[in-house]
Design a protein that fits this description.
Number of domains: 1
CATH topology: Rossmann fold
Order of helices and strands: HHHEHEHEEHEHHHEE
Number of strands: 7
Radius of gyration: 18 Å
CATH superfamily: Vaccinia Virus protein VP39
CATH architecture: 3-Layer(aba) Sandwich
Largest sheet: 7 strands, mixed
Number of helices: 9
């Protein structure tokens, strides 16, 4: 029998620190807030609908690569989709979810109250700034790499992981072949048109996401930064015709 971790109090409202930051951290926060303000209630539906269910498959691929351990950190946890999966698969582990958007953590809190896992804690903060006293066996993050520059996040992640700890990053990617790029471009046009009418709160995302993904080189940039900060790349996997990618790395220094 495992000993369940103490769950964070879920009755208090979640508020993020109001420290003023300059530079890329502020730019990243402003972009995330502009994209996702007012979207938390429809997020789970939208991410499943507009990836044609692929998001569920991608989360399963993350879980397959998540090692057993006492402590797992889920950065940019959003509404807690991956966080709850991690808690179910690792009932004896302490799972900590971090997100910068209070409304998303509020939605995650509602889901946790319904399911009542005893091993989840939610923290409001920026992935590139949040600190903990005890290191983690694994750090996961879905959809963060395109928003946070590798040179800012990776140096912060290194001390958060134990020696031989595992980092798993996932995000959208621009397909590498001509055919799948054309299909991807068509898909982005269709979701922009459909989303404009069906989910007006998502108009900013549908308008700007394609350009962000198209220009992102997050896989190469994160591999380079990880190599420079004591990590060994274990795997780079292209998923769903190259429209998403997984990067798995181990802390070796």
């Amino acid at each position: 029998m495992c000993r369940a971790s103490r769950r964070v109090s879920m009755s208090r409202p979640l508020r993020c620190p109001s420290k003023k930051r300059k530079g890329r951290s502020l730019v990243t926060t402003n972009l995330v807030e502009r994209f996702f303000r007012g979207t938390s209630q429809s997020y789970d539906l939208v991410v499943n609908l507009f990836t044609y269910g692929a998001d569920r498959y991608w989360k399963k691929e993350i879980l397959k690569r998540t090692p057993r351990g006492d402590r797992i950190l889920d950065l940019a946890c959003g509404t807690g989709i991956l966080t709850l999966h991690l808690a179910r698969v690792n009932p004896c582990s302490q799972i900590i979810g971090v997100d910068v958007m209070p409304e998303y953590l509020q939605k995650a809190r509602q889901k946790i109250l319904e399911e009542r896992p005893c091993n989840i804690q939610l923290v409001c903060g920026k992935a590139e700034e949040v600190t903990f006293r005890t290191a983690f066996d694994c750090v996961t993050s879905s959809y963060i790499p395109k928003y946070v520059p590798a040179e800012r996040l990776v140096p912060h992640l290194a001390p958060l992981l134990k020696h031989h700890g595992v980092l798993i990053l996932h995000d959208f990617a621009y397909p590498e072949t001509w055919l799948f790029r054309k299909l991807w471009e068509l898909h982005m046009i269709l979701i922009k048109l459909a989303g404009w009418f069906l989910f007006p709160e998502w108009r900013t995302v549908f308008k700007e996401l394609a350009g962000l993904v198209r220009t992102s080189q997050w896989v190469a940039e994160y591999r380079q930064a990880l190599d420079a900060h004591g990590f060994r790349t274990v795997e780079v996997a292209r998923l769903t015709a190259g429209s998403a990618a997984l990067l798995v790395a181990e802390k070796v220094a």
